Amino acid sequence: MKKESVRLTAAFLGTALLLFLVFCMNLFTGSAEISFSEVVKILASLGREGTAADILWKIRVPRALSAMLLGGALALSGYLLQTFFHNPIAGPFVLGVSSGAKLTVALVMIFLMGRYRSVGSAVMIMAAFAGSMLSLGFVLLISRKVKRMSMLVVCGVMIGYICSAVTDFVVTFADDSDIVNLRSWSLGTFSGMTMDNVAAIFLVVAVAFGGAFLLSKPIGAYQMGESYAQNLGVRVIALRAALILLSGLLSACVTAFAGPVSFVGIAVPHIIRVVFRTSKPILLIPACFLGGSIFCMVCDMIARTAFAPTELSISTVTAIFGAPVVILIMVRRRKGEY
Amino acid sequence: MTDILISADQLSVGYGKPLIENISFHVRGGEIMTLIGPNGSGKSTILKTLAGYLKVLGGRICLEEKQAESIPGKEKAKKLSVLLTERIRPELMTCRDVVETGRYPYTGHFGILSEKDKEAAQKAIEMVEIGDFADKDFSAVSDGQRQRVMLARAICQEPEILILDEPTSYLDIHHKILFLEVLRKLAHEKKLAVIVSMHELDFAEKISDYTLCVKDGSIYRAGTPKEIFNDQVLHELFDISAELYRRYF
After folding, report:
1. What pTM was computed for the model?
2. I want to staple A156 with a disulfide (CB 3.0 to 4.6 A). Which of A88, A95, A327, B244 is the partner?
3. Residue A185 lies in domain
């Protein structure tokens, strides 16, 4: 028992340290040449003058922060969906939740931008949330008919394709001036974040994270199956609703600001389970969040520096690292390790 | 005589519409009631209704004096625990972790186990004699061992009533006997009321204080083992000719 807690503490400290390092690396790298000492100087003195300071405070810091918060949100959303469906390959992207949100956000943006030039964060999040819930609603309907988990994922992927197709259609026929941002957003990117965005993201993500953390006890019981959970006194219907709402809110927040980001929701919770070797939600919820933050910040760093000044879309990078993990999960499941 | 812990009065059970009606019985602390009958006769439906998974369609179920539906979930969890046919597949949990999930109704908001909770889990583990493999991964032990882990989990919940749905069906003779021996101990020493459905008539006869025979949507017979376990009742219950029955029993 003692050994166990030492191991877990070490894992948490290691992850936190890694998070800090990756965050710093994100501030030090970029297409503009800013020397190491200069970055340190700007950060230390909180200097705000000059191009370098502008790049740092207006571009790199908000981008790193949003990648951190949204990455954590995605991983947590994936974890909650996996718990809900008792399925390790569930996640907001494969179940079509991200694409549903993408569709509604694209519609709202095109509709409102023509009139008002800019759309508020709250409106975007609400639009994305509506889209998330719509696709999740479909997936839930299907899950009542289809008991096989793999089929459920296939249905989710199909819903995702339908939504993406409609989004592409709408984007193609939208006014040229509107879609400059829309096109890169619809592929997924952390670029163009402002500190105001970061504040809005922080608010939503903090609430959802808190909610999930407070539910860690019933989530633990729910892992034993609904019947056993109910016998233990868990209000299963309320818990299921909460899981859906929280995971929908988290992935909606991601899609509203960064577009659909693939595979983080599946890959990170899986990696975290292997690293932490536990199934206790009270540990996994914060650990998944940290893991998602690291994963997304690393991927974003690669996306913007690998072929600088050309940027890759974030999903390109997350897919390269995330998709093999999904294959690994399925192979291991076959062997009966799960 | 100990108190009546669970009773049914004119109970109707079923999925939406009544499948079996007019079920009445009571089980005292220290008694084991078995449900026997062909597959699909409704044993599970009765058990699921008793455990609160299905709505009572008529009549009533009482835990001690109180009507079962009026008892809030957390409180009921301390009175009644279950072992179901549903298989669980927890990831990365040791057998002990699985047993400890039974402490849910007793822990605080974050579900942190106190020393007392851990002691209760340890006691349950000893009672069911699974200490040898308690710290192994749940997915790495055999079906028979898993079933006893699930029993320890149910005991760890410190219930007064234990409801088990065909707990011994997939076990070999060795594990069947070990399992039933624990059930007998729980009833006789801990004074639990045990309700269990099973297919093994020979074993059912040995451990029952009272038996319900379920057939074709009704309680076909009910009584003590002496009244139930005779050729006449059994060959009719399972629709086997008397001759064929005798050849095998």
Report:
1. 0.91
2. A95
3. 2-334
